[in-house]
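hey so i finally got around to running the thing on that chain from the lab meeting. sorry it took forever, my laptop kept dying and i had to restart like 3 times. anyway pasting the input first so we r on the same page abt which one it is
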Amino acid sequence: MDASGTGTIGGLADDRVLLGRTSTAERVADILRTRIAEGFFPPGTRLSEESIGGALGISRNTLREAFRLLTHERLLVHELNRGVFVRVLDVDDVEDIYRTRRLVECAVVRGLGHPPFPVAGLAAAVAEGEAAARAADWRGVSTANIHFHRELVALAGSARTDELMRSVLAELRLAFHVVDDPRALHEPYLARNKEILEALRAGERAGAERLLARYLDDSRSRVAAACARAVDEPAGEE
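ok and heres what got predicted. didnt touch it at all, straight out
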C-alpha cells in the first residue's frame, strides 16, 4: 500500500492552508497525525516524501522532521531502504496501550475531588457519538469515543497528562483501523460512556471509576482479539 494515490494526496493538499506562513515540522506532524487518526493513511501505508511534500508545499527537510516526530510517538516506523510507514500494531502493543489508559484514566477519575464535576465536555462527546450512530457513521462514533476519553483526562487539569494521552489515543486509532466490524466494536460503548457521564453527574466518583475500569478491560479484550485476527489473516497486497 502506498500513499501516492491522487485521491488521498489531493485531499491532503486541502490542509496546506493550515500551515500558514510559518510552516513548521510540528504543524506538519499535527496534520499527518490527524490524517492517520482518521484513517486516511491506514496502518501499513508507505508515506511518499515527494507526494506529501508536494501536496503540502513544504521542504523535504521539514517533512522528514515531521516524520521523525511521529516516529517518536510510535505512529510511524522507518524501514531501512524501504521508507516510512504507518505502524501496524500487534497484540502486545494493544495490551500496553490499555495498561497505560487504565493507569491514567482511572487515576484521573479517582482524583477528581469533590462534586459537582465539570462534565460539559463529556456530555458533548456523548451527544456527538449518538448523532454519528444515528447516521450509521461508525468512524464518527470512534472519533467521538476518543473525544470522550480526552475530555475525561482533561478533568485532571494537567497539560502533561493531556499530551501523554493525546499520543496514546492517537496510537490506539491504529488498532481501530484493522477492526473488520467497527459497529460491533464501537456501538456498545455509546451506552457505557453515558453511564460514566451520569455517574459523574451524580457525584459518584467511585462508581464512575468502577464503570471505567470494566469498560477498559472489555475494550482491551475486543481490540486485542481484532488485532490478533488481523495478524493471522493479513489483507492481500494492493
